[in-house]
Task: structure prediction
Amino acid sequence: MRAAICAVAITCAFIPGAQASDKSDVEATLRAAFAAANAGHMDTLGKMIAADGVVIDEFAPFHWTGFASWTPAYGAYNEQNAITNSRTKILRFKEIKVSGTHAYAVLDVALTYKEHGKPRKELGTEAFVLEKTAAGWISNSFAWFSKGGVDQGADATAVLAAIHKELDTPNPTTLPWKGIIDEFPAYHWQGDGAAAGWGGDFQKSGQELVKLDAGAPEHLSVNGDAAYVVLPTTIDLKVKGKPVREKGRFVFAMVRTNGAWQTHSWAWVLN
Result:
């Protein structure tokens, strides 16, 4: 499960400092935000939540537009599952990229909490997309990469088949994706034009996809007509004509419409 403290926390105020680089500012912002959230200082953080964005998490329905819609859903999930005393520790910043007023950050974290009074600990990875405004850096989008259990059965098999079919699609910009988080600018895309916007920016980045090789899922949860999947993947690319191999993970928020599974939102991080 996800600790609410993590995703809400990223929306803390910008850390000033004329001499600091944007990357340092992004890291400082996230560290200060987690510290404030762990201390329970949520009022200031709540005012800095972006109105919209892509949110992917491991509890149903697994995808939301903006933290404002995610927050009450997570509160209800916590109450239903007797989750208390959530705390988050940043283990390391794996990657921070900044392009203009947009940033992409990937962190390994440790979550501790109590479930029905019993202490729990969970390790995972978080990806954030931030925007630099007049007030400072705020978070637009967030994705959580869990390493939980893997559901079995016909639905799980159908979900994986749908993902593999999409990964093999010659022109993925035609797919009905509604939310995307990726490692090149503008780092996130949403709405009916998400796939086309992502595809256009992918071409601008000088990348050409050669092959995708997806492994066994690290986490697969099916809940009614929604599913959450974390899938290790090796990607072979050409970047400005030179071969590049990337190893990382996708997280998919899936929906079943008229009996067919398809991706609603996805995010990517490097290992």
